[in-house]
Design brief:
By secondary structure, the protein is α/β, with parallel strands linked by helices. The protein is 38% helix and 14% strand. The chain is globular and about 60 Å long. It comes from Mangrovicoccus algicola. It is an enzyme of class 2 (transferase).
Length: 250
């Protein structure tokens, strides 16, 4: 039977919603990826670091304006000292090798997390990269390094409490959004989509406050195998999700 395009039930049902403006990724599975190849864990981290460039490059093509990557958690210090040292060396190497490209691509880089326990040289390099890219805006890349949401929330709560104690904020005015300006992510919108690679279905202390209304995607792909194609598939699925934020939509 002939049916005009506007009567096509599939065409009529517009399933595409706004693109994910802020995507946050828990980059997991480097160790298992390496183990499966009979290689040391650090080799997996090295191959994982290479994937960052591809994902950064792909984001603007999909309308993603903010990309946040979980690189090292406040709990990751529990790993063997050699793995921790290897990861820290990799972060320094990443900054050295990627700065020029990130500047050229118009990427603005920020770091979130507690910098206090990090090596001073790494801290200087992080500040240098933030400064070198501060005027960029094609993509906002945020790297969570020594980040833990509970740590972030307790640091934020302490600063809010100090402001209340000093009379700068009234205790009566403290509400659901009061912590926002004290969070490491104060300058960033909340993530629309949180992706975790490697098949684990947990958030491991990542953006607990900010992800209150995020969509979640858990993919079995290990981070060193994650690239443009898998990102595209996940973003397409996100586009057909209906976000309700507690309301009833007709
Ligand atoms: C993610 O990969 C990288 C970091 C946590 C730094 P893992 O190192 O956690 O890899 P798996 O989970 O052991 O495979
Ligand atoms: C989460 O991965 C942290 C990062 C990806 C940086 P983990 O591998 O540390 O998380 P758990 O231990 O499996 O929860
Ligand atoms: Mg892991």
């Amino acid at each position: 039977m002939f049916r005009a395009p506007h009567e096509d039930p599939l065409a009529a049902k517009d399933t595409s919603h706004s693109p994910a403006s802020h995507v946050a990724i828990i980059m997991d599975g480097n160790g298992r990826w390496a183990k499966g190849r009979g290689k040391p864990r650090l080799y997996g981290h090295k191959m994982g670091a290479r994937r960052v460039r591809e994902v950064v490059e792909a984001c603007p093509d999909h309308g993603v304006r903010y990309l946040t990557l979980y690189a090292f958690s406040t709990e990751n210090w529990k790993r063997a000292p050699s793995e921790v040292a290897g990861l820290m060396a990799l972060f320094r190497q990443f900054i050295r090798s990627e700065t020029a490209e990130l500047v050229a691509q118009g990427v603005r880089v920020r770091f979130i997390g507690d910098r206090g326990p990090l090596n001073p040289k790494l801290r200087r390099m992080m500040a240098g990269l933030e400064e070198a890219t501060a005027c960029n805006g094609a993509l906002n890349l945020t790297v969570a390094l020594n980040y833990g949401a509970r740590d972030e929330l307790s640091r934020a709560a302490l600063r809010l409490a100090q402001d209340v104690a000093a009379g700068r904020v009234s205790a009566d005015a403290v509400g659901a959004d009061s912590l926002r300006p004290y969070l490491d992510t104060a300058d960033l919108p909340d993530p629309d989509l949180v992706i975790r690679t490697s098949g684990e279905s947990r958030v491991s202390n990542f953006l607990l406050w900010q992800s209150a209304y995020s969509e979640f995607e858990f993919t079995p792909v290990y981070w060193p195998d994650f690239g443009r194609a898998e990102l595209g598939r996940i973003l397409a699925r996100f586009g057909s999700r209906e976000r309700r934020f507690g309301a009833v939509l007709s």
